[in-house]
# Entry
Amino acid sequence: MTSIAIYTDLDGTLLDHHDYSHAPADPLLQRLEAQGIPVIFCTSKTRAELLRLRQELNNRHPFIAENGAAVFIPDGYLPVRPADVVTGGGFWVKAFVPGRSHWLALLRQVPNRFAGRFRPFHDMTVDQLADLTGLSPEEALLAAKREYGEPVQWLGSDADREDFVEALERLGARVLRGGRFLHVSGDCDKGRAMHWLNQQLGAGGSAPITIALGDSQNDAAMLEAADHAVLVRSPSHPFPRLRRTERVLETSAPGPRGWAEGVASVVTHIDKTRG
Ligand SMILES: [Mg+2]
# Structure
């Protein structure tokens, strides 16, 4: 029987939009672990942030960090080490983009007229980061440990910001416009990272059936690529827009309650259809 793997966004999806609680999903998370269905975090967060969260949630599975920039598989998790990974910190790491130093160097190459109008994470103190993000200093420190890109605070006008983004794109970057920051990295997304990891999980047999869950447009690539897409309701913005219409479920509850509702419904459906 083909197995199942769950790929999930965190903020606003498994974690509550306001208080970051996962409590409403805890009973189901325990059941999934007992059934051998891995829950794989796929998020904009850093490896450092995810290591802490995995510990808190007792999760021992691979994860995807920094919006699909890299996949981390615990060393020995699979019978065979994938061909194109490096080993580091107890993980097999598959990176889809160059490392942070590449992006910092690229930020130093933008035209002079942008000087003083942007500030990379790299140039901020922990207290400045905590102020800007609303995180505690400890959390801000983990969030600042980017390995595959650089968040940048834009200090100039909106019109100049678009010129700045274009300048970065001409230099070979891809820029995601977040709520507070511009995220400068390379060509990667959650969907491609999920696809690669799922192929590794299926190596030597058939790849698991994928269920992806997300609440935002930056989850779209992952939601499009999965066998089953669960759109988790957000209290702050509409569902992400998808091209697909088959095997798409929109939850009625938001955040972790919606997460549990969606996962339970899709897993039951899969169990029924495969007998
Ligand atoms: Mg989210």
User: Anything to note?
Assistant: The mean pLDDT is 95. The pocket of magnesium ion is lined by residues 9, 11-13, 215-216 (CB under 6 Å).
